Amino acid sequence: MRKEEVQDISKINKLPIVAVLITGAFLAILNQTLLATAIPHIMADLNLTENTAQWLTTIFMLVNGIMIPVTAFLIETFTTRRLFLAAMGLFAVGTLICIAAPNFAVLMVGRIIQAAGAGIMLPLMMTVFLFIFPIERRGAAMGMVGLVIGFAPAMGPVVSGWLVEQYHWKSLFYLVFPLAVIDIIIAYFVMKNITERTFPKVDYLSIILSTVGFGGLLFGFSSAGNYGWTDNVVIVSILVGAVSLIFFIRRQFQLKQPILEFRVFENRLFTITTVITMIAFIGLIGAETILPIYMQRMAGYTAFESGLVIMPGALIMGFMSPINGRIFDKFGARWLVIIGLVLLTLTSLLYTNLTVDTSLTYLTVVFTLRMLGISMIMMPATTAGLNQLSKKMIPHGSAMTNTMRQVAASIGTAILVTVMTNSALNTGEDALPSEVIHGVNVAFYVTTALSLAALILAFRMKETRPEKVKRKMQTAGQNQ
C-alpha cells in the first residue's frame, strides 16, 4: 500500500499515532506560555522595552490563531502524514531559528514560523482522534487532548522560570528542539493517513479575509490589555477585524466548499458546548494571567511561588482529564460539565476576597479545585459537541472549536485585565496594595458572572451518552 492512501483504521496501531500527535501538540501549546517568565531576561540581553519584548508571546498567539481557521481546508487538501510532518517541520525550523537568533528581529521570525506549525497541530490532533476512535471511546481519547490543553500552558511558566534562573534564556529552545526532531523522526515511520482528502478549491479571498479578520480581532483585543481600549491601533484593529470577519462568514455561505464551515452552528448542542468551552477557557487563561500579576506585583510573592500555585492545578488537570474522558464515555457530558461549572463558579467567587495577606495555601487549594472543574468541562463539552457532527463536518467542527477558544482567550484576557486596571481604587505611585487588589477582586466577580451564565446554559444540554448518539446517527444514516 502506498503511503499516500488512506489506510483502514481498524488495521492500524493507534498507540504510536496518538503518542506522536500528543507530543507534537504538547510542544506547540507549551510554547504559547514558555517565554512568559523569560521576558525580563530577554529584555536585558537584547536591550528591549517591556512592550517590545511582549510581542514574542503576542505574535505566537496571533499567528497561531490565524492558522487554526484554515486547518480544516489543509486537512481536506493534504494527507494526514504530510500535514503533520509539515507542521512539526515548521515548528522545529522556527525553534532552530530562535536558538540561532542574534537579535530581536530574527527571534520574532523564529516565533512566527514556530506558531505557523503550532496552529495546525491541535485541530489536526482532535480531528485524527475523532476519526480513529469509535464514538463510544472518544471521551477517553479526547481526555488526552484535555491534558495537553490544560497542562501544557500551565507548565510553561514553571519550566521557563526554573530554566532561566539556572541557564541562558535560549535554553528554553534547546529543550524544545530535540524533542520536536525526535517526534518528527518517529512520526515519519508511524504516522498513517487517516483523514480523507476532498481537494476543496483554494479560495484566496477567503484566506485573506480569515487572516485579516481573526488576526485583527486577536491583535486588537490582545493589545487592549496593554494599551487600553481607546488606543487608535486597538480600535482600528478590532474594527478592521470585525468587518473582515463579517465578509468572511458571508462568503463561506456562498461557497460550495468553504474554507471554514459555519453551518456547524446549525447544530444546537455544538453551539451550546462551544459557548461553554469558550467561557471555561476565559476562566482558565484569565486566572493564569491575573493571579501571577496579583501575587508578584501586589502581594509580594516571588515568580517561583506564583508558579508553585499554578503547578498543582496543572497536575490535577493532567491527571483527571483522561479519567473524566472515561466517565464521559460511560455517562455522557451533561453532569460532568454542570459539576465542573459549579466548581469554576465557586472558585471564581472565592477569589473575589483576595487581600495582601492571602496565604499561599489558600491560593493553591482554590486554584487546584478550579482546574479540577475545568478538566470536567473542556474536553467532555467539546467531545459532546463534535460527536453531533458527521465525519465530513468533523474537521470544520474541530477547527471552529479551537478558533473560538483562541478568540475567547484573547478577548477574555483583555477584558479581565482592563476591568482589573479600571476597577482599582488607586493606580498612582502612592497606591496602597489593597487599593490595587480591589481591581483583581472585581475581575474575578466578572469571571464568576460568566461562569454562572455558562452553568445556566449547561442545563440546556441534552443527554450526550455516546451509545445514544451512535444509535441516533445510525438511525439517521449519517455515515458520511
Automatic annotation (TrEMBL):
Keyword Amino-acid biosynthesis appears in the UniProt entry: no
Chief place where the protein resides: membrane
Location relative to the cell: Cell membrane
Residue ranges that the Swiss-Prot or TrEMBL entry lists as coiled coil: none
Transmembrane segments: 12-35, 55-76, 83-106, 112-133, 140-159, 171-190, 202-221, 233-249, 269-295, 301-323, 335-354, 360-386, 407-425, 437-459
Topology within the bilayer: Multi-pass membrane protein
Key words of the record: Cell membrane, Membrane, Transmembrane, Transmembrane helix, Transport
PANTHER family (alphabetical): MAJOR FACILITATOR SUPERFAMILY (MFS) PROFILE DOMAIN-CONTAINING PROTEIN (PTHR42718:SF24), MAJOR FACILITATOR SUPERFAMILY MULTIDRUG TRANSPORTER MFSC (PTHR42718)
InterPro entries attached to this UniProt entry: EmrB-like, MFS, MFS_dom, MFS_trans_sf
Record Pfam families: MFS_1
Stretches assigned to the Major facilitator superfamily (MFS) profile domain: 17-466
Protein name listed in UniProt: DHA2 family efflux MFS transporter permease subunit
Species whose genome carries this gene: Virgibacillus sediminis
Domain of life: Bacteria
Listed Gene3D superfamilies: MFS general substrate transporter like domains (1.20.1250.20), Multidrug resistance protein D (1.20.1720.10)
CDD domains listed in its UniProt record: MFS_LmrB_MDR_like
